[in-house]
Amino acid sequence: GQIDAAINPGNSGGPVIVDREIVGVVMQANAGGRAENLGYFVPPSIVQHVLKDSEDQQ
């Protein structure tokens, strides 16, 4: 997903919260170009899938 909140170095892995609900995990900010306050996040369903796959491989 995409958000218009300020994302700074070190925010990756933190929660994206909208209306008191976690809607994703911060992935990266737009590092170049003219867009400011443009960031990207991974939705919870993808995070859960990755964690389950990781557990299944152990």
Q: What can you tell me about this protein's structure?
A:
With 58 residues, the chain is an alpha+beta fold. It has one domain (2-57). Helix content is 24%, strand content 33%. It has one helix at residues 44-57; strands spanning 2-3, 15-18, 21-29, 39-42. The chain has a 4-stranded antiparallel sheet with strand order 1-4-3-2. The radius of gyration is 13 Å and the shape is elongated. The mean pLDDT is 86.
Summarize the structure.
By secondary structure, the chain is of the alpha+beta class.
Blueprint (SSEs and pairs):
Layout: E1 2-3, E2 15-18, E3 21-29, E4 39-42, H1 44-57
Antiparallel strand pairs: 1-4, 2-3, 3-4
Structural key phrases:
single chain; 58 residues; alpha+beta; 1 helix
Radius of gyration: 13 Å
| SS summary, helix count | 1
- Please give the order of strands in the largest beta sheet: 1-4-3-2
Secondary-structure element string = EEEEH
> What is the mean pLDDT?
86
The proportion of residues forming helix, as a percent range, comes to 10-25%
Straight-line N-to-C gap: 29 Å
